[in-house]
Design a protein that fits this description.
The chain is mostly helical and 412 residues long. The protein has one domain. Helices cover 52% and strands 4% of the residues. The protein is built from 14 helices and five strands. It has a three-stranded antiparallel β-sheet with strand order 1-5-4. The longest helix has 30 residues.
Length: 412
């Protein structure tokens, strides 16, 4: 991929957030509730139409071959997963208040859409907002915080200096880890903050004493979680209520139509939605060129630049509302609606200069290939060789697979 051939930038951004905002045309900040609702209607209509057509025409009478019918139903789950992910993205827009000028409309729409997809809307909205306020901060970021060399070596049962002596991780080990991430990453994140920071005692919420990432204790469903302040409790419970309603409805549907039908109609497409969500987020924040920062070296402008735009063709730009192609802009100004994001992205590129990162080679196939590339290249982070002063707080990805920059030599 293009990004893996480019050595990480050794300098940090020198522009300001005002420089970014001033470069963006004023109309890009305009939000339309009617336009937002039209996209919601489009995605729901796509889901409903696909459901209707497959159930009406994909029958034993019309398609006698059982293997062919099974293959076409598999296609159905993939297509519905993409449409569901598009709806998920629109609810994400609601959480950022980029959906419309009305907070009530935003939160009502977001709560309904995310609840239908088994996402705790307000709970995730709050934690996701903290991710935006601390992107790339090793001590405060909320998602895909990379492991340090010591943390990575502890995971595989070795001392940090022994990494140099190990053979490369086998492709099958990378594959198993990647499949596990795609299948279980999202629910584990919601239930126990997997991939989020684990420094709860040092956070301003003041509720993290003695708490570490674990099931329920640091959960998006628990009003007492250190992820939230006491004032957030009602919103967490409202999120839980939305999930309870959705689960009740699904239970009734399972009893009415059977688990087999519901697995095809809802649960497998739901897993596809989870897959795309994790894949998108992973690739937005994991690339050999992306820096991460210690708390002392981090600031908002640097963190927002520690993201990357990719290209997923028609799927990304149309079905998924450009969330893959315009993510760098989104981290600088998250209230710009997605339908203005391409224009705004072009406007900030001259301001960011070489600090703007993108990997667009190969289109959709290139995006999918990046899942493997990033998994092989990005195992842990450490400072660059010879770093001094503030540079010791700037971390880049390394690996033991002989790819890219060689890890630091460490003495026993």
């Amino acid at each position: 991929m293009a990004s893996t051939a480019i050595p990480p930038q050794r300098t940090v951004p020198d522009y300001t957030i005002n420089d970014i905002r001033n470069a963006i045309p004023k109309h890009c900040f305009e939000r339309s509730g009617a336009r937002g609702l039209a996209y919601v209607a489009r995605d729901i209509a796509s889901l409903a139409t696909t459901f209707f057509l497959f159930n009406k025409y994909l029958t034993p009478e019309n398609v006698p071959s059982t293997p062919l019918r099974a293959a076409l139903w598999a296609v159905y789950t993939v297509v519905q997963g993409l449409f569901g992910t598009g709806l998920w993205v629109l609810a994400h827009e609601c959480g950022h208040q980029s959906f419309s000028p009305s907070k009530i409309l935003n939160d009502t729409t977001g709560w309904i859409c995310h609840s239908a997809l088994l996402v705790p809307y307000f709970s995730w909205k709050i934690s996701h907002g903290k991710h935006h306020k601390a992107t790339g901060n090793m001590e405060r970021d909320m998602v895909f915080v990379p492991k340090t060399r010591d943390q990575y070596s502890s995971r595989i049962g070795k001392l940090a200096h022994e990494l140099n002596e190990l053979t490369e991780e086998t492709p099958i080990a990378t594959l198993i880890h990647s499949v596990g991430q795609q299948l279980f990453g999202w629910p584990l994140y919601l239930f126990m903050n997997v991939t989020g920071h684990n420094n709860h005692e040092r956070q301003p919420e003041g509720r993290g004493k003695g708490k570490v990432n674990s099931f329920w204790t640091v959960s998006h469903f628990n009003p007492s979680s250190p992820l939230y302040e006491a004032k957030d409790a009602k919103l967490i419970l409202l999120s839980d209520l939305g999930l309870a309603i959705a689960i009740t409805a699904l239970t009734i549907l399972v009893k009415t139509y059977g688990f087999y039908n519901m697995a095809i109609w809802y649960f497998i497409p739901y897993l596809w939605v989870n897959h795309w969500l994790v894949a998108i987020t992973f690739l937005q924040h994991t690339d050999p060129t992306l820096p991460h920062y210690s708390g002392e070296s981090w600031n908002y402008v640097r963190g927002a630049a520690a993201t990357i735009d990719r290209e997923f063709g028609f799927i990304g730009r149309t079905l998924l509302h450009g969330i893959i192609e315009t993510h760098v802009l989104h981290h600088y100004v998250s209230t710009i609606p997605f339908y203005h994001a391409d224009e705004a992205t072009e406007a900030i590129k001259p301001v960011m200069g070489r600090h703007y990162r993108s990997d667009v080679r190969g289109g959709s196939l290139g995006f999918l290939k990046s899942l493997w590339t990033s998994a092989r290249w990005c195992q842990w982070v450490e400072p660059s060789e010879g770093a001094v002063g503030e540079g010791k707080g700037v971390f880049f990805f390394r690996n033991r697979n002989g790819l890219g920059t060689k890890p630091l030599e460490m003495k026993a």
